[in-house]
Amino acid sequence: MPLTPSDCPHVTREQIDVLHARYLEERDRRIKKDHNDQYVETSGKWAKIYEEDPYNPVIPRKAITGETDVVILGAGYCGMMVATELKKAGFTDFYNVDHGGDFGGTWYWNRYPGIQCDNDALCYMPLLEETGYMPSKKFCDGYEIQNHCRIIAETFDLYPHALFHTLIKELRWDPEINRWHVGTNRGDDIKARFVVLAMGPLNKPKLPGIPGIDSFKGKLFHTARWDYDYTGGEWRNPVLSKLKDKKVAIVGTGATAVQVVPYLGKYAKQVYVIQRTPSSVDARDNRPTDPEWYNSQKPGWQEERIRNFHHAAMERLAPGEPDMIQDIWTEISRNVAAELEAEGWPETTPEEYAARREVVDYRVMERLRQRCEEIVDDPNTAEALKPYYRFLCKRPCSNDDYYPTFNRPNVELIDVAATQGVERMTEKGFVANGKEYEIDCMIFASGYEVTNDLDRRWGIDRIEGRDGLSIYDYWREGFQTFQGMMAHNFPNMFFTGFTQAGANATNSKTFIDQGRHIGYIASEALKRGAVTVEPTQEAQDAYIRHLRSVAVDNSEFVNECTPSYFNNEGDQTKKRFIFGEPWGEGYYAFEDMIAAWRNEGELAGLELTSDPQLQAAE
Ligand code: NDP
To answer: Coiled-coil regions in this chain (predicted)?
Structure first.
């Protein structure tokens, strides 16, 4: 049953003030001086964790040295959406290059026990109408999502374009041939007319920088490369039978760990859950999709649902607009809308709306803390598991088995907030709060590189545009783009995701719209006989000026959050935000703006150059 506002306890202004002070205190004790630098990169001696594929063998192939129209870096949701849109724009000669052994990106790599998407599948899984696919339930299992990726690839005939098990190491603009050299770890040197970077924001696992991490002699792996040979079981049937005589520790209590921990608790002899900051964990209320309802939907229903989800999760519900999603992501907006409805929808300024949201936020978080207390038997464990921060400071979770797992006799919560993480690792295990725990296996659910320097995140050694200019140097102090998708000095290169563009609550919607825009620009450039297309400096500067003039300043909220990759690990000196610099007028305003730009048909702000040899031949 969907929750209503009355399911949340009332909180007085005085209680809010006390909670606010507690939130700041909890944040302060977790901010590490070394912020992002606290993590260990999965390169050098840890490269195996990132680079090796434990699931599928790498099939030898010859190096590719020929030409192509487009290289898309990535074959996850983003790379696939770009590919489908490029096909619609008329491109037939392109590659989807990916490190993984199949389509899916994060859904290829992440196979840990319990993996499900935390988002409404009817929004999250793209192209449902085009593929005719009905997700089995509201929150789908990882393998169902990866299978759907394969269905998309087959529907749009993407397999012939795939170059799997291939890591791009170099992208270098060659003015002699007006193409990008795409160098890979498989010895390729592909000469691409266009390049699209579509690798998603969370693709490179990171390790916690625990002193002595390399002295541990037991088994160690990251959740993004689950070792079923060691644990027993397999992706579709995670019966971790080989852990029955093992002592296992897991570092991290984020969205991944919340899904994994119930399985460890069920199968391992002893489990230590090492927590620095607790997640908020609501009831899951997962349910099968009703085929009758699904089949009764009118064309365009998915777009409409995605728009509604975006309003509820990231903006606000309009008067009379229903909440179609009815889950943790939309509860705050739904409750604020109920309040406004009861008052006859008074005019509310953005500040007034934010103030109402804040109160509802405290009420929802109080409900979640009470939920934890009701389920977890041991009062000290329950207290340590309660989240003290605003709702969207960390990714909200829902799971029916997480809290009950702490009532098992073989599961112990190790709270390391006081020492800002695990003190150290030893040959036999780890030390926390002055005590050594001997373990057989350490599992890192320690997340991904998100707000680090791009060269560290992307793992591509060189990306060099005109005159050898490195994108890493060019963007060292922040993005500089035109429409979030192109950059001056980087002809025929396109960027996707969270840069200086619109950010939709449904990622694949962002990727589809960006793919459409990129397909339009690239195909128009070719139709007009151009060999290069690039934003002018003036147009880029004007775009950034406008973007910043409409930006919404949410720094107060972000800075008050407990540290995580959402707020650059609490480092306020660098303005790095998971969503980049999003278009402040809202996602759909951005989409309308770029659609209008396309409709004008002028390619305004872009400079096109044509090949003198081609012109001479004409
Ligand atoms: P996160 O970055 O969210 O969590 C990393 C965890 O490791 C945190 O709990 C962190 O603690 C902890 N940690 C890091 N260093 C240390 C240390 N030295 N000592 C102790 N603990 C430490 O990673 P996840 O893999 O959980 O999630 C990443 C993202 O992946 C999610 O936010 C989400 O976007 C995506 N995801 C999506 C899912 C979906 O359903 N669609 C499911 C799972 C993940 P602290 O919080 O204190 O930093």
So the answer is: none
